[in-house]
Amino acid sequence: MELKIDLLDIEKKSTFRVILGIGFLVLSATWIIVKIQQHQATGFIDWIFISVMIFNGGSHTIAGRGYSINKLFGQAFIDIDEQQIAIKTGVWDQEQRVAWKNIKSMEYLANQYRVRLNDGKLVIIQFSKLDYLLKMNIKDVIITLAADKGITIG
User: Fold this and answer.
1) Count of Cβ atoms closer than 10 Å to residue 96 Cβ
2) pLDDT by residue (tens digit) across 50-68?
């Protein structure tokens, strides 16, 4: 039994976000056109405003189409298999990885597992940022694999 989930692939398509993104892009283009037609110089603040609008429009349009912007910055995943437990709940979060062969016992608390290693160290695997159903899925897989390996869960 194993559980492999890429947490950044769970983006939902949104027509509203696509329209919002296109609106930001049109707004930035209109700003430039108005400045040119009125023969006004575009100042530093104008370029900052235009840049923010283009970035905002592009990111909303891409995210609205179902693609994750966060994938540009890193990974977020759940990878639980016969060899290890590896969880990274967010792009900026620390990866938590423990090999099954190093686990002596486990204790389940709300939104976390306290894992006692063979050398006596305590490792805490957090997954508080995840959805409830995903937490229950993780819990079921860990319980099944731990039972197969003879690891007690308290």
Assistant:
1) 18
2) 999 999 999 999 989 888 8
Residues 6+ apart with CB under 8 A from 115: 85, 98, 103, 105, 106, 122, 123, 124, 125
Tell me the three state secondary structure of residue 102: helix
pLDDT, tens digit, 9 for 90 and up, residues 2-26: 899 888 876 688 899 999 999 999 9
Fold of 76-153: PH-domain like (2.30.29)
Residue 41 identity = A
DSSP the chain: --EEEEGGG-PPP-HHHHHHHHHHHHHHHHHHHHHHHTTPPP-HHHHHHHHHHHHHHHHHHHHHTT--GGGGT---EEEE-SSEEEEE-STTSPPEEEEGGGEEEEEEETTEEEEEETTS-EEEEE-TTS-HHHHHHHHHHHHHHHHHHT-EE-
3-state secondary structure of 76: coil
Tokens of 85: 């437990």
What amino acid occupies position 143?
A: I
